[in-house]
Amino acid sequence: MKPAQPIQFDNEPQSNEVRAQILDQEPYATRTFTPSQCVISYSAGSYHYTPEGRKLADFTSGVLVANLGHNPVSWWNRVQKYLGLDALTDSGEYAKCVPLTAYNAITEIEATANQRLIASLQSAPGGSRINQIMWSASGSEAVQKALWAAMKRTPGKDMIIATRGGFHGKKGLAGAVTGSEQDKERDERVRFMSFPKAECIDIESRKQPLDLTSYQAELDALWNECGDRLCCIITEPYLGGGGSLHPQKEYLQLLQQFCRDHDLLFILDEIQSNFGRTGPMYAFTHYQVEPDIVLLGKGLANGVPASAAVGRSDVFECLDYGEASDTWSANPLTSAAVVATLDEFEQNDVIAKGLELSVVIEAGLVRLKETRVIANVRGEGCVWGIECADIGDKPSDDVANDVIRACYEGNADGQAIHLLGALAGNVIRISPPLTMNVEECQHYLEVMYDICQSLAE
Ligand SMILES: Cc1ncc(COP(=O)(O)O)c(C=O)c1O
C-alpha cells in the first residue's frame, strides 16, 4: 500500500523534496522496496553523491549493472567515438553522427556488436553452442523472446520447467517462470522444480557435495507427467532475487544432463551474472555448463539499457520474420555501449580486478558474522548476499532494514554505504563495481562492521 508519507531523513531538504515529488507523481507500483530512497545527483566510479553533497560507497552497482563503475571516462569516450559524436563540434544545426534510432534499418555498429559479443561468448569455456543474438532492451524481454523460440521449436512441445524461487522478471512469460506454483495466476505451461536452498545457505554448507537424488526424482516425475510437451528448462546460475543462493555446480550440471537426455533446451538466465559477476566473464564457465541459450542483461552495456538472448541459431530461426522485433532492440546507442563495455573488459583487466576484489569482500563479509547481526554469508566473485539474524525480539527482516538505513546514514565520520532493499526479506546484496579500489572496499566493509556492531548492542 502506498505510504501516506514519503521516506524522509533529517538534514536532507533537497533529497526529501525529490522523494516527496516522485512519490506523488509516479505510481507506487513502479518502485521496489527501499529503506533509504537514496537520491543521487551524480556518480563517479564506485561512489554516489547526494544533492546535499554526501558521498556514498556503492555496494550495488545500480542493480548489478555498472560492473565497470559509474561513468568511466574511457568508456564514455568509446561510446561517443562509436556513435561518431566527435561531429558535435561541427557548426551545423545537426551533427552528422549515428542516429539514436535505426528502426527498419540496420547500422554498422550493430554488426560490430554482434561480432564482438559472439566472439566473447564463443571464446569462453561453455560458449560453443552460441552463434546468434536476439537483442532486447530489458531482461524480461530477453527471457520472453528466448521462451517464445523454445516453445516454437517443436509443435506441441510448449511446456517449460523453471526452478522454484527464481526471478526472471515480472512481465509476460518472464513473470510466468518466476516464483513458484503457489503464486497466483500461474501459466499452466510452466512446472517448477526445487532449487537447493538449505544445502547452500552459507559458504561452508555449499562446500559439501550436493545429494542429487531428490532433484533427479523430481525431474523424472515431471518427465512422466508431461515429458511429451516439454521444450526447455530455464534457471539462473544462482538465485539472485530469490535470496542470493549459489548452488553447487553439480545441480546445474544435472539440469543440463536431463536436457541433453531428453532433447530439451537448457536456458541459463545470466541477466544478473554476466560480464564478470561470478568471476569469469560468464557464469556458465564458472559452473562448467554449456547452455543452448544464455540470457544477458544488466551489466551488458554498463548502464545503457540492453539485453539479449544468445544461443543456437536453429532455435532462434523458429521464430518468423518480425516476431521478435520492437522499437529499441539493437538500437545504435545500445550497440555502441555493448562494444565499449567489451573493449573495457578486454583491455583493462576488469576480470582480474574483480577476482582480487572478491577475496576482500568475502573476508570482510565473513567477519560481519562476529557481530551476530549477520547469520549467513554466501556468494562468489563480486555478488554476495548476507542474511541477517533475529536480534532479540527484532525479526531478521527488520534488522536488514536497520542495517540498510544505518549504512545510508553512515558512521560518525560521515562514511556511508548505498545498499539495495533486502532480497527475500532479510538478505542484503553486496555487489560493488568490479573495479572498486580494493583498499577502499576493505575500508567500507570495516565501516559496515562497526555499524552492525552498534546495531547488535
Ligand atoms: C536473473 C534475472 N533475470 C531477469 C531479470 C529481469 O530483468 P529486467 O528487470 O531488466 O526486466 C532480472 C532482474 O533483476 C534478473 O535478476
Describe what this molecule looks like in 3D.
The chain has 457 residues and is α/β, with parallel strands linked by helices. It folds into 2 domains: 13-72 and 350-456, Alpha-Beta Complex (Aspartate Aminotransferase, domain 1), CATH 3.90.1150.10; 108-330, Aspartate Aminotransferase, domain 2, CATH 3.40.640.10. It is 37% helix and 14% strand. It is built from 15 helices and 14 strands. The chain has helices at 13-25, 61-64, 73-83, 108-123, 139-152, 172-176, 203-206, 213-226, 249-262, 283-286, 313-316, 332-347, 350-368, 396-409, 438-456; strands at 42-44, 47-49, 55-58, 132-136, 159-163, 190-193, 230-235, 265-269, 293-296, 307-311, 374-380, 383-388, 416-418, 427-430. The strands form 3 sheets. It has a 7-stranded mixed sheet with strand order 4-10-9-8-7-5-6, sandwiched between helices. The chain has a 4-stranded mixed sheet with strand order 1-2-3-13. It has a 3-stranded antiparallel sheet with strand order 11-12-14. α10 (283-286) links the parallel β8 and β9. α3 (73-83) packs across α12 (332-347), α4 (108-123) runs parallel beside α12 and α14 packs across α15. The longest helix has 19 residues, at 350-368. The chain is globular, with a radius of gyration of 22 Å. The model has no long low-confidence stretch (mean pLDDT 96). Bound molecules: pyridoxal-5'-phosphate.
